[in-house]
Amino acid sequence: MQSRSPQLHRHQQTLWQDLTLAASPKVGQLDNIKTHLDLVLLALEALLGIGSDAMLKTAQELGLESDIGDRVGLWRLRQSNPLRKSSGGRKKLDVEEARSLVLIICRLAQQHQELVRRAVTLLEQMVQDERPPYQAALLGDYLDNFSNAYQERMRENAAVSSEELENLACKFLIDLLFYSGANGHRRLWLALIS
Amino acid sequence: MITRRYTPPTCTLEIFAKRSPLARFWGNSLVNELRFELRFDDPRNIQKDSPIACGDRQQLDLLCDLVTTYVQDFLLLSSTRNFPLLAVDTLTAEKSPLPPEDNASPAPSLPYLQPKGLLFHELTLGELAESNAEAIVPLSASQLFDLATALDEYSAEIDRLPQLARQSATPMIPVWVKVAAGLVITLGLATAIARLSQQPQSQIASTSSPKQDSLATSPLEPLPSLPEPLLPPNPTFPNDLSQRGQVTPPPSVTTPIPSEAPFVIPRPAPPPNRSNSSSSSSPPPSPKEKENNDFPLVPPKATPTLPDLPAITSERSQNNSSLENNPFADNSPTTPVEPSRSPNQSETPAAASPPPVVARSVPSPNSSRDRAPSPFESLEGRTSNPEQIAPPQVSQVQGYFQQRWQPPENLSETLEYRLYLDRDGSLERIIPLGEAARSYLNRTPMPQLGKPFVAPSSNLQTLQMRLVLETDGSVQTLLESSDR
Question: Is residue B363 left, alpha or beta, with left meaning phi > 0 and alpha meaning psi from -120 to 50?
């Protein structure tokens, strides 16, 4: 751990430097950023079947413990999503934390790119064949997980129809593929702040 | 001939760059002469006559911009309310040729992309099509991803290519010519002297002058015989020479910036710039831009999650006014400084943290957190927060060093220091960032600690700033944070 930390640190530093704010977000964008990050994480959870442990481990690998150190911290960060049910004691998300989440998301997506890609390819195939995506096991599980988690965690007025939820899940799945690329962190960051 | 091949799973991008012999002498950059070929050879769907895109560097760069922008716009859909459906219906319905015609009219020859549902896209090659100008390539999301990946890889590499080109082209000329010419001259002189020594004195003038002429005009003649020994030296010589060659260009790029901007802070962020500029600033094919905004695939009925956001946003944005100013406002510009070059920033905990973010680079993270949580909301305040514009001390420090900084001759690296300025305008602490900065500290015109050298600060206790001493003698200062 000691020996690889400088390298990791440099790498993380480079990634970190990619995530600059060329322009400040407009009013209203900030909540979208929180929502977006939370939902992308939700998509990752739903597809990979991972929990906060994996995210914390990735944070550790990236040397981001100072921003995202423990389960409660991560939970509170995600609670900053205004669509979340519980609003009391919500932690605000600051820029460093948002960057950290971006790096974590992209690292996880990169690590599981094969699976992400398989899911997207499967989705393409199902749609081309005009078959409902949930008929494919991988996609069915993903869509179920995503919908359940969404309904469980988000406020009622954020509720959407199951069809819309499915589209949302599919959109985030495709996005994950783009985030899994070498430039993924930049793409996600730009998508957040644009 | 240089070849690069990028082979994501569903397409192949090949780059060819010819090096003409003349280019060596004219110093032409290789990368300007490159050609590319892009094949959509998805193994799942091999077609004999699948279109091939090809063109020159300009066209390839254009294609990069096009795809980057398109992908970025696509990703943006998530954060807008225009959630498209999985366009099972529209997929077939939109296969009508109408949109292409529509878009083709303004600039028929430019390539463009258009969505065919969330999962499918169409790339019209336009002038890039090898044979058929109407060539349209259907791309699925994963194919689009692969195309973007290949182009990203190319973009990342092309940034390094000019240097490579310079390394291989320019240094080779002097070494070649010098060695060859030296040899010729030596040989020539030796034979001349040898002959002369055997000839009567009176002939010296007449014999030597033709020799001189031949030396002047024919250095190229013996060259063909030399190439073999010249090949091995290539890898060794260019390193030195190319570094010298590389040192000069940066100054010409960086110098205008400090001269325009007194405190460098406004300098925009270069690292994301590439993607940024390509995604936002350069949508040269206007039709593409138009499409992306429209995103015809968006079915009107799909408006899932985010409809809620505006309400929440306005609710929350009222609270934002109470938020502190954001040190990040000043930090973001620090990112672009080229500090990444100094890897040994392990001097202090401060230096060990990533430079772009002030809050992280303040020695005591706790205090920084307490002082300015720099929540996202505070970014909004950034624009209406003039006090975060650098205090005069920043430019004064820059002026101080600008007058005194004389880079040592052998300095090949930018030096960076983190300076802590006391309230009385004196230097409280200096932290060299990186090995070079540490070893050259004595050669820098650092003022004495505790001795005021800029104006005292009236409302600030301490200032933390980054000092960047360039090898070309220019100086940059960046405010990192100010403690109240």
Answer: alpha
Q: Closest chain A residue to B152 measured between Cα atoms?
A: A183
CB of A28 within 8 Å of a chain B CB? The answer is: yes
Do residues B141 and B284 share a domain? Answer: yes
Pairing state of beta strands B462-469 and B475-483? antiparallel
Asked whether residue B1 is domain-assigned, the answer is yes
Tell me how close the Cα of B320 comes to any Cα of chain A, in angstroms.
Answer: 9
Instruction: Say which range, A14-28, B110-124, B163-177, B405-419, has the weakest mean pLDDT.
Output: B163-177
What mean pLDDT, rounded, does chain A reach? 85
- Give the pLDDT mean for A72-88: 82
- Do B132 and B246 fall within a single domain? yes
Residue B48 is predicted with a pLDDT of 74
C-alpha dist (Å) from residue A7 to A10, A13, A14, B349? 5, 10, 11, 16
Last-in-domain residue among B304, B339, B359: B304
* B101 and B146 belong to one structural domain: yes
Same domain, B300 and B351: no
The residue of A11, A183, A193 whose CB has the most chain B CBs within 10 angstroms, and thus the best one to mutate to test that interface, is A183
More confident of the two residues A12 and B391: B391
Say if residues B471 and B449 touch (Cβ distance below 8 Å). no
- List the domain range (segments joined by +) for residue B399: 327-371+390-483
- Please tell me the predicted confidence (pLDDT) of residue B44: 84
Tally of domains within chain B: 2
What's the helix, strand, coil split of chain A in %, to 5?
70, 0, 30
User: Sheet of B427-433: strands edge to edge?
Assistant: B427-433, B415-421, B462-469, B475-483
| Residue B316, in any domain of the structure | no
- Listed by start position, the domains of chain A span 5-193
Q: Inter-chain contact A93–B376, Cβ cutoff 8 Å? A: yes
Select the residue from B10, B71, B79 to test the A interface by mutation, using most A Cβ atoms within 10 A.
B79
| Angle between the N-to-C axes of helices A52-61 and A95-111, in degrees from 0 to 180, rounded to the nearest 10 | 100
pLDDT tens, A108-133?
999 999 999 999 999 999 998 989 99
| pTM score, whole prediction | 0.52
ipTM reported for the complex, 2 dp: 0.90
What's the distance, Cα to Cα, between the start and end of chain A in Å?
36
In which element (H, E) is residue B475 found? Answer: strand B475-483
B203-240 pLDDT per residue, tens: 444 444 444 433 333 334 334 443 343 333 443 444 44
Instruction: Sort out which chain A residues have CB atoms less than 8 A from B272's CB and list them.
Output: 18-20, 22, 186, 189-190
